[in-house]
Design brief:
32% of the residues lie in helices and 23% in strands. It is built from 9 helices and 16 strands.
């Protein structure tokens, strides 16, 4: 079974308040779009990744993506629905069995979530991740609250929304003159039954400046901070009865000369640890000039 991913990255994202489309805003040195695509590359089930971008963004795209192994981008349309259609048309020549359609501004989807959605789509044909409504929901018209809606029957839709490829491709062709906000709405309009799958709170869409701050904090938590340090120590021999190395006393006819036990092994290790945190060496903290 061939699995394709369609990343929709043709929007402008003005609400985030940046001087560039939000999908190219850097998080920890990499564009949001880079982080999003990179998650899908970690899933072994994925065969193809197709991106859809704005015609004006090719320079931004090339700089952001680097050498990620994806298909060449295609230009999107005036609406999200038109952009998805252009992406599906580009994928059609590869004849995928399943396609997952995902927002570029959702970089925190987990590989496990992607795998689960693929497996369910292979069985059921159309799957969307959803989250329950936790707040009381009101219907507001003309600036006035009209009624309270029953939230138990409502859900928040996320992406990736996954379908058998031919199913959603034909649905988009049928609804080409409409303007739906997501692909599940296109599917619903064509009578396609959707299976809800438990979504992830962390898989939020970066939309506002507050979302961007949250994303920046989350990406830092995800990064592994690897540091290295190199330490060495030298002590001369002198008359004695043992040598201490690594805290172990070794009988010997000599010992190491030093202000303390002259344990060159532990002193070198201490220097390496201090170097890893950028805090001098053992002599800085315990100078031999200090009798304590």
């Amino acid at each position: 079974m061939k699995v394709a991913i369609l990343i929709v990255a043709a929007g402008r994202g003005h609400r985030v308040g940046a001087d560039m489309p939000k999908q190219y805003i850097p998080l920890a040195g990499k564009a949001i779009l880079y982080h999003t695509v990179n998650v899908f590359l970690q899933v072994p089930y994925v065969d193809l990744i197709q991106t859809v971008i704005h015609p004006d963004d090719h320079d931004l795209y090339d700089k952001a993506m680097g050498d990620l192994a994806v298909l060449p981008p295609v230009n999107g349309g005036a609406t999200r629905q038109q952009s998805v259609m252009k992406g599906l048309q580009a994928l059609a020549r590869h004849e995928p069995d399943i396609v997952l359609i995902h927002d570029a501004a959702r970089p925190f989807i987990s590989p496990k979530q992607i795998e689960d959605i693929i497996v369910k789509t292979a069985e059921y044909g159309a799957v969307i991740p959803t989250l329950p409504m936790t707040d009381t929901v009101k219907k507001v018209t003309d600036g006035k609250v009209k009624k309270t809606l029953e939230r138990s029957s409502m859900a928040r839709a996320q992406t990736p929304q996954a379908f058998r490829f031919k199913l959603i491709f034909m649905a988009h062709k049928r609804m080409e003159d409409k303007d739906f906000t997501d692909d599940s709405a296109v599917a619903e309009a064509c009578g396609i039954q959707l299976l809800p799958h438990p979504g992830e709170e962390r898989n939020f869409k970066i939309t506002t400046s507050e979302d961007l701050k949250k994303a920046s904090h989350m990406i830092k938590e995800n990064l592994t901070d690897i540091r290295t340090g190199l330490g060495f120590d030298v002590h001369a021999f002198e008359t004695g009865s043992s040598v201490i190395l690594g805290g172990i006393t070794i009988p010997h006819d000599r010992k190491l000369r030093g202000h303390s036990d002259a344990d060159v092994a532990l002193h070198a290790l201490t220097d390496a640890l201090l170097g890893a945190i950028g805090d001098g060496d053992i002599g800085t903290h315990f100078p031999p000039s200090d009798d304590k």
